[in-house]
Structures are given as C-alpha cells and as structure tokens.
Amino acid sequence: MSCPVTKEKVEFVTKQFLCNVPLNNFQWNDIFSDLILDEIAQQTLLDSTINSNLVLHLPLPTNYQKSFLKRIIDCLEECRQRYSELKETVICDEIYSAYGRLVAIAVTEDNFKHYMIKDKDKVISLKESNNLISDGTTGLRTWQAALVLSEWIFKNESLFKNETIMELGAGVGLIGLVLRECSPKKIYLTDCHQTVLNNLCKNLKINIDKYRDKYRPDAQENEDSSFPRGFPIEDRVEIICASRCLYHNVGPPDTYVLKLPWEEVNIEECHKLGVIDSIIAADIVYDEDSFVALVGALKCLTESCSVKRVIFSCTERNPETLKSFLLQMNSASFFQQELEIPVQNNFIWPTDTPVKLFSFKRSL
Question: Name one Pfam family in it (predicted).
C-alpha cells in the first residue's frame, strides 16, 4: 500500500494517549487518511497504545481507552467510506478485538498516566486520580503547572547537577522523578497529606529500582518511630528527619519522602536537613489561607539552609490570589523574577489557563 504513516505521527498520538490528553484536545495531525491505507501502521499504533505491555500492566482509565479506540474506529470507518471507490482501504481486525476486550473488562480504581520523556528515551509512570479532588486533596493528580515546571527543569537541568533540592507539595511525584534525571546529589520530596504521601511513595517505587529502595507502606499519620518499619538492621544508616521519613532510596541521587507541613518548618528541622541549594514547587499557590505558613517556611529554610534559588510554577486561575502571594513574598524580602515558559517538548499541557514561572531570591 502507498502513503505509509510516518513514525512521528504514530509517536505523537501515542504520547498524547499515554498521558491521558482529553480526546477533545487531541491533535491527530490527519493521521486517519494515512492509517486507512496502511494496515501495518494501524497495528503499530495499537501495539504502542491499547495493547502495549506498559498499558496492560499499568492501565489508563478503562473508559478513556474505550473512547480513544472508538474514536479511531469511527474515523477509520469514515475514511474507508470516503476512499472506497478510489483506493484500497482496510481496518485491521485487531482493532475491533481490542475494543471488545475493553468493553468486557471491569473498570478499575488504579489508573495511571505515562509521560514519554523524549530527551531521555524513557517513560515516567504515575498512579493518579481522575478526579480534581480526591480524599479531600488536590494532590493525587498532575496539574499543568507541574508539567510546565518539569519541562523547564529539563531545559535547565545543568542548574541542578550535584545539588540538594527540596520540592514543596510534591503530589504524585512527577517533578521529583524529573529531577532524578538531572544528576542532583539529593532530593527531598515533601507534602503533608497522608494519602498523597503514600501514593507518592508507590509512584517512586514504580519508577525506581525496587531492590535499592526502602519504603514503609504501613506508614501511619501519628506513628512515632526512630526508623521507618522494614529497614533491615544492616541498613539503619542515619536518616534525615527520621521521624518524618516515609521513603528513602539510596542514591545516586538520595531521594527522601518527608511528611513536612509548612507550619512545622522551624530552625531545628532545617538544621536536620542541612544545606539545600534549590527549593521548587508547582501549583501550591491557590489558597490564601496557606500563604502565611508557606512564606514562613520559605523564610526559615532560606535563612537556615543556605538556599540559593526558589522556583515556583503557578497556574494563574485567579490573578488576585497570585498577586496576594507575590506581595507577601515581597514583604518577606523575597524578590521575584518572572521566567520564560518553555516550549512543549517532553510534556503536553493545556494553554487555556496561563501558567507563570517565578524565581525568588531573599535579601537577608
């Protein structure tokens, strides 16, 4: 058959599918008029999406997969009718078989997204919630500000080489896993919600060598322990903020998950942490009631941990809320510089709501 589908077209559709881009925002790049003439390309697309080992093992939402495949079937059948008298057309049987399989399986609660990292030739897989708010928190899904910041980190990865980095509001863990690709010395991933922290630990285990990490799956919110449960005696090396540590992967880079509410950041905790070169955060500037604790934590960390830079990625849902945060930062002697939003390369995000990137430095 003629008009073979380009590899780039198939890869771009696959990339969008794996990270669960809403179908009404999908960019198909006129792939169907090519697919209807290329049965091998249809099979290739199916094998890289619905039937891939990655998706079969760590599935996307079932309803999303069905909608994706139904869209492909509908568009291919439309193209077949359009070209039936002019060209040889075909729809491979495996597409219909895959759709039948999806219709028959039960909907599961464990859903994943997979982010194809073009520059690193790898995939980051994350368990995420489909809901905006789950278990009283917004931290169980990746938000567009995290995608923007992740892209910016890759563009500026030399900044983080051999550094110690702390993320505030680490959520599902995308930024932390992106940072691991930048050869830092140490990473602290912090949050305060127990469900978020447990999910964060699981996502790290999915993406990091299971034989090199230590993880306490039974961590309880008020549990008091010198070392996380499950640490073999021979591995009981000194742990940073041991009572707060839910996960520690021995590096490089050393990666810690810490339960660290902002209002509990004090000089004693900062001294345990030691030097921190960079603090980063995405989409944590949305609740004015939290600004006093957040700014206070940033003041303590910058004063006690020799922080060189603070990078925030903020979705500007309400300009007045963002303005209020910037004013409070300015009152605390933080001076900001707005950074350029990177071009979408490794990540795809909606652009209907603007995202702003800021670098902060404090005048001590």
Answer: Methyltransf_16
User: How confident is the model at residue 257, as a pLDDT?
Assistant: 96
The model's pLDDT over 59-88, given as tens digits with 9 standing for 90+, comes to: 999 999 999 999 999 999 998 888 766 667
Closest CA relative to residue 128, chosen from 145, 118, 115: 115
List the beta bridge partners of residue 201.
none
Q: What is the pLDDT of residues 218-228, one digit of tens each?
A: 444 433 333 34
Tell me how far apart the alpha carbons of residues 353 and 287 are, in angstroms, rounded to a whole number: 17
CA 82 from centroid of its chain's CA atoms: 41
Q: Report which secondary-structure segment, H or E, holds 213.
A: strand 213-215
Query: Which of 176, 159, 158 lies closest to 167, judged by CA?
Result: 176
Q: d(Cα 263, Cα 13) in Å, to the nearest integer?
A: 44
Q: Give pTM, 2 decimals.
A: 0.87
What is the domain partition of the chain in residue ranges?
7-104, 131-362
